[in-house]
Amino acid sequence: xxxxxxxxxxxxxxxxxxxxxxxxxxxWVERKQSALMQDRIGANRAPIFGITAIxxxxxxxxxxxxxxxxxxxxxxxxxxxxxxAPFIALVPALTAFAVIPFGDTLTIGGxxxxxxxxxLDVGVLFVFAIMSLATFGVVLAGWSSYNNYSMLGGLRxxxxxxxxxxVMGLTLVGVFMVYGSLQLTEIARAxxxxxxxxxxxxxxxxxGILTQPLAFFLFLTAAVAESKRLPFDVAEAESELVAGYFTxxxxxxxLMFWMAEFVEIxxxxxxxxxxxxxxxxxxxxHPDGLHVPFTAIVVGLPSLVVSMMGxxxxxxxxxxxxxxxxxxxxxxxxxxxxxxxxxGWKMILPLALVNVVLTGFVVLLLNR
Amino acid sequence: xxxxxxxxLITLVVAMGLxxxxxxxxxILGPKRYLRVKMEPFECGVEQxxxxxxxxxxxxxxxxxxxxxxxxxxxxxxxWAVRFRELGWYGFGAMMIFLGVVFxxxxxxxxxxxxxxx
Lengths: 368, 118
Fold this sequence. Notes:
Chain A is mainly α.
């Protein structure tokens, strides 16, 4: 029991350390990447003892600044809901990471643990259930501010997030059919197997992106839309709604909405990495070492090294997906609202239904 | 069984504590200066013309209703998807009938213009 408790504390600590730091760094990445893509220099001033480290201290400076700014609540706003909204927006995003496995099993001193805070058998459902709660924060912020821009932003966000939640749920049905589980560790583990055609091992891992290519693209699109970032950011569209649902926020509450957005990006990237890119899996690397393709040679590796490499691989995949989302955000112009709704309801939804039918056919034909 | 959810609960409590600390700190640390004009809702420099508590487009209600309809249908698919291999062709056929109904619903809404946004 004590070992279990230590493992649990360590894992929860690691997850919070990772997610919060990533959220902070993403604030800097967002500014720096936009600067690079627009041929500017970007944030590079905030120093600690004269060291600027290409602007890496800016998130820290932002946090200090946000804490010491006036916490402003408009006179006609609903005070309680206005304060509650950033809270409800941030908490689900932070909690969702609890079920996402960031590595294979770790064995230290004879005690083995799965590198996930909570290995729920309904992992994916839990992520959806928790993430959809964030909608309440957004709608509450828009309604409680007593501001027309906020109200419009909140309304747009609610309809958009509801629409894309269906699509996100539906695109994953194909994944569950292929791997036969809702448990994220099981899905990730199943992706370590190889395609076998006619008894011949091809040594190509069964990653979700290969077994469910259509679902991968549909889910990624829906996930970007769900996080309300460009090109789907009509809810906060600066040029028409000032800042959308968080127009009337200042100080840390304002920053909490941003944090929620960045944490959401991390969670989405982690989810896509787990479901479609094999999670912690590195091709040909098994718990007992590296299997050389098309041979029976096994290069033995200590289990601790394999575990650490798994965590590293998972983080690499998450970083690549974050970079992809950042690039999308700074490349594409904003869609109109009717285009967003049409994309969700008339294109992705029917395609996702077709994907379910096709997956069913192919799996059953190959199986029996 | 429910023991699996203890870590989730701990994570939730930590997350809530963190968010509450943020709100508390920014409330305590920041200055407070009340100005009558500042407390008014922001509307790009003009006084608020219309109340934000007015009625809004019925489209948003429609999306919410469609959401409930389709989300429940998606949730019905989940247990079937997990047990898909065991159920085989029989389960597949049964679910195709259900998906056919979903498809007809979608087509009907499409034709009725419920999915149009203008």
